[in-house]
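In this section we walk through a basic example: taking a raw amino acid sequence and producing a predicted 3D structure, encoded as discrete structure tokens. The instruction is simple. Fold the sequence below.
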Amino acid sequence: MEETWATLGVDLHLETGGDASRHGVRRGLTDALREAVRGGRLAPGTRLPSSRALAVDLGIARNTVADAYADLVAEGWLTARQGSGTRVAERVVTPPARPRPPGRKGGAPTYDLTPGRPDLSAFPRAEWQKAARRALAAAPDDALGFADPRGRVELRTALAGYLARARGVHADPGRIVVTAGFVHALAILGRVLRARGLRTVTVESYGLDLHWNLLHRAGLRTAPLGFDALGTDVAGLAAGSSKAVLLTSAHQFPMGVPLHPDRRAAAVDWARRAGGLILEDDYDGEFRYDRQPVGALQGLDPEHVVYLGTASKSLAPGLRLGWMVLPAGVHDEVLAAKDADGASCGALDQLTLAEFITSGAYDRHVRRMRLRYRRRRDDLVRALATAAPHVEVHGLAAGLHAVLRLPPGHERTVVQAANWQHLALQGLSLFRHPEATPQDQDGLVVGYGTPAEHAWTGALQALCRVLAGAGG
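The resulting token sequence is shown next.
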């Protein structure tokens, strides 16, 4: 027997604020249902009457009821699944608010699946401490003096060996400049390019607005390339006037695909013909799961590619350690620009990372984390296959995140529903360049590397609840 409002035993009062229009009735119904759920009169899992039955009970139009239900599904109060009807969402009852301890950030999510960070709880504290002690004991006196703008030679030497072995980078210690992370390196390069007379840097159609804004502040415009099933389309380089391009060639962020081999070759050919410069952001190149990591683009032409790496994804962003491997043609300009801004990384942190690499601890940590992230990726795929089979999962071969494709128009609804589940989640549209060709692609960028190990299961369950509630 189909539920009616009377069988639920809930007295529903519609307050329309004097507005008897369809909009006013819809608003009144939405508010009344929300308060019934919030106040516990409608328990989690309760099946609600069909829109037709409730419309008859209340003497209003069926479309008004359907719209009110849709509003509450979008907010996360209700779920709607084909064949299961509309139900009150399964949610943890929130206790009355207590005063927050001093310093606690208001509104902080319970679960965090935003991309761009590793599992910070897995930082190898004991191994890092051992490396720091050894590095400090062996540090020469001049390590405590004024810094070389290139960075400590011990770290540059260690990086040259590691990058050649693990990423296929042609790196001489004299061509490496240590920076305070990728953002610091990009800001320096932006100033150098602008000083050379460039007005535009070509970028990918998907990426981080933080990076685009850095280039804008340097006085440079950013012009996006196209994107298709093969990833970033570099054909636009030849058609444009820009002499520099920023690429995530090993693992496009956030779409998760490597630059196609033909397009890798085409990008290098363009740089040679046009005298252009490729800025290669190798942000998580160590984490590939289906085969050996894709080698760096820099290996194809070290004189036309600036290789940019960082310890932010492999270890922790708080270390503020990154590096550039520079072509001879820009080395002196970049070094002068870095020296002029006065920013440098702590010598002892550099020496510790050098020791961490040369001792083999860095390789062991990367292998350990690769296994952990692969397990989480597999957990994600299995859970979604059961809870939300309508969701397509992409970008699984590498990295710390996946892209979940949603039907058009669903992205905003799902992100709003995630907020009600206290889940930090970011939509794909957030990463689309404002000048990129519009694409009918709704989705989520799910950072499965971010949660601490103890929080991973809860975060995954929250995601499944949100996507299951969104329906197909």
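Looking at the output, two observations stand out. The CA atoms of residues 217 and 390 lie 42 Å apart. Residues 92-106 have pLDDT under 50 and may be disordered. In the next section we compare this with other chains.
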